[in-house]
Write a structure and sequence with these properties.
This protein is of the alpha+beta class. The chain has helices at 25-35, 40-48, 54-57, 101-112, 127-141, 149-161, 167-172, 199-216, 229-239, 241-244, 252-265, 278-293; strands at residues 16-24, 66-67, 86-96, 118-121, 177-180, 188-191, 194-197, 221-222, 225-226, 270-276. The strands form three sheets. A five-stranded antiparallel β-sheet has the order 2-1-3-10-4. A three-stranded mixed β-sheet has the order 5-7-6. The chain has a two-stranded antiparallel sheet with strand order 8-9. A hairpin with a 2-residue loop joins strand 8 (221-222) and strand 9. Helix 2 runs antiparallel to helix 12 (278-293). The model has no long low-confidence stretch (mean pLDDT 92). It binds zinc ion. Zinc ion binds at residues 24, 26-27, 65, 76, 78-79, 81.
Length: 294
């Protein structure tokens, strides 16, 4: 019987974040056999059930026997054990969007059939939390000292607003410029390495650039230059952003908050995790068999 191959490629890459977490099996076994004084066989049975938590994967409370950068390290940072003790868990986080929910459901149905290998989580998140986490990941991935950070952030914002499997092909030759266009069909269009976007999407890009640069560079730098909040809001109004997003306040701060709310509401509404334990279970078995046969 041939089992169908599982692939996350059916989901737009911009909606998937992958995290690799290493575990030291020497530390893990030692905990059960030395600290808890359990027989190797019992330790193995217990360890087979092990799944790191979300806080291990996102770095909030990554602790022994887990660590990052297992590919670069040659020895365990806790027990100095050699690399052959390392095993890797891969977490795939999907920020779900109606544009590809059908594909996501199908993939999850396939993953459910391999419950030994894949552990599935569906943690509770508000749309605002999902947006904040996305912004945080974008902030970490952005080099604010580089000349093209504005362009990179623009492309990521557009990918979030319009998730699609076509992006990889579109971006293969690179984007030279993001250009506001009132003639664009739909929200965006690519021509000769120029990415033309609607006033609504262009405004979203400026908003995200403004938010990031305010927190990272102590000022609101965007494609439109460095502007104060009042000037920035005037510029957005001139572009036709508020009209396009149906925001008609007369208070700049209120409009700004509403614009963020619109960006949040138009984005992903749910988070799904799949943790691949394939490498872990395989290495765990081989380590256990060597211990047993000794
Ligand atoms: Zn170790």
């Amino acid at each position: 019987m041939k089992s169908s191959e599982i692939s996350f490629d059916v989901i737009p890459a911009s909606a998937v974040s992958e995290t690799r977490l290493t575990i030291c099996l020497k530390c893990a076994f030692d905990f059960f056999t030395k600290q808890l004084q359990l027989a190797p066989r019992t330790a193995y049975t217990e360890l087979r059930k092990h799944v790191p938590e979300e806080s291990d994967f996102n770095g909030a409370s990554t602790a022994r026997p887990h660590f990052f950068d297992g590919d670069a390290l040659t020895h365990c940072p806790y027990c100095n054990g050699a690399k052959r003790w390392f095993a890797v868990f891969t977490a795939y986080r999907v920020d779900a969007h109606p544009a590809f929910e059908k594909e996501r459901k199908k993939l999850w149905a396939a993953l459910k059939k391999k419950e030994d290998r894949y552990t599935l989580w569906h943690p509770e998140r508000t749309q605002m939390q999902i947006f904040s986490e996305w912004l945080e990941r974008l902030k970490r991935a952005t080099d604010f000292a580089s000349d093209d950070w504005l362009l990179q952030v623009a492309v990521e914002t557009i990918k979030r607003a319009a998730p699609s499997n076509d992006w990889e092909e579109v971006l293969q030759s690179g984007v030279q410029r993001v250009q506001l266009s009132r003639q664009v069909e739909g929200d965006w269009q690519v021509e000769n390495r120029w990415l033309y976007v609607s006033p609504a999407l262009y405004g979203d890009v400026l908003m995200i650039q403004h938010l990031l640069s305010r927190s990272q560079l102590h000022g609101g730098l965007t494609f439109e230059g460095r502007l104060t909040l009042q000037e920035f809001m005037k510029r957005l109004r001139r572009i036709g952003y508020f009209e396009a997003r149906q925001i008609q306040g007369d208070d700049a701060y209120e409009d700004f908050e509403l614009a963020i709310q619109r960006i949040v509401d138009s984005g992903p509404a749910a988070v799904y995790y799949a943790v691949d334990r394939g490498d872990y279970l395989e290495k765990l078995k081989s380590v256990y068999e060597k211990k047993r046969d000794k």
